[in-house]
Amino acid sequence: MKILSMLPWADWLAMLSFFGLWVGYAWFARVRGKRDQSLIATTNMYRQKWMLQTTARDPRMLDGLITQNLSQTPAFFSSTSIIIIGGLFALLGTTDKAAELVREIPFAQPTPILVFEFKVLVLVGIFVYAFFRFSWSMRQYTFVALVIGGMPPPEEFDSGRLDRHQVAERAGRLVGAAAETFNDGLRAYYFSFAAMAWFFSPLALLIGTALVVLILYGREFRSDVLQVLRD
């Protein structure tokens, strides 16, 4: 409880603003993305088309390879998150040297050791959250592989016994859920860079958070890649 009294009000305000902007932007991107077709919403349309093509293929080796390749990225980030968490816990054992190094930076604000350790623990929490999102995305891709493997042969769709669009729509939603979960973890990595600015000053945290939000907004709603996908 000592940290509650040692952390200045400016740091509390910056930390609340940081998490408020993170949660607020995630909500904004999800709600507006459905209306204005964000990058994730646009790529979800391609995922639906992919699953529709999958119902017409036999065998579905290509779809299995695509799913495997997609699952490798969250697997990589999941492993990386564990390494980063281990490095941050190792940093807690050398906070004296780390805090001294930060103090030597001209524009850095002097920080007590206990407050410095608290900031490191906030970073640990961010990467723990990222690990759970990446690992869940990885598992969801295994479910996608199961759904593809369990699809009936194209002849059953052609005969009219099964609704091709219904099966493709369900599988597409599952792929989209895996992609959105991965996007949550990746967003946590972006905000972790803003959180590192907190070691210098609360103002640096606010500026870093605002820059991350602007970068994410530009990539998800105003990027050249989005325009190409829409065209």
List the helices and strands and how they pair.
Elements: H1 2-6, H2 9-36, H3 39-54, H4 61-92, H5 95-103, H6 113-149, H7 154-158, H8 164-196, H9 202-221, H10 224-230
SS field, number of helical segments: 10
The portion of residues assigned to helices is over 70%
Distance between the termini: 55 Å
Strand % is under 5%
Query: What oligomeric state do these chains adopt?
Result: single chain
What does the overall shape look like? elongated
Radius of gyration: 22 Å
Q: Name the helix and strand elements from N-terminus to C-terminus, one letter apiece.
A: HHHHHHHHHH
Q: Pick out the low-confidence regions.
A: none
**Structural class, please?**
mainly alpha
The total strand number stands at 0
Mean pLDDT: 89
Largest sheet: none
Word description of this protein:
With 231 residues, the chain is an all-alpha fold. The chain has ten helices and no strands. It has helices spanning 2-6, 9-36, 39-54, 61-92, 95-103, 113-149, 154-158, 164-196, 202-221, 224-230. α8 (164-196) runs antiparallel to α9 (202-221). The protein is elongated and about 75 Å long. The mean pLDDT is 89.
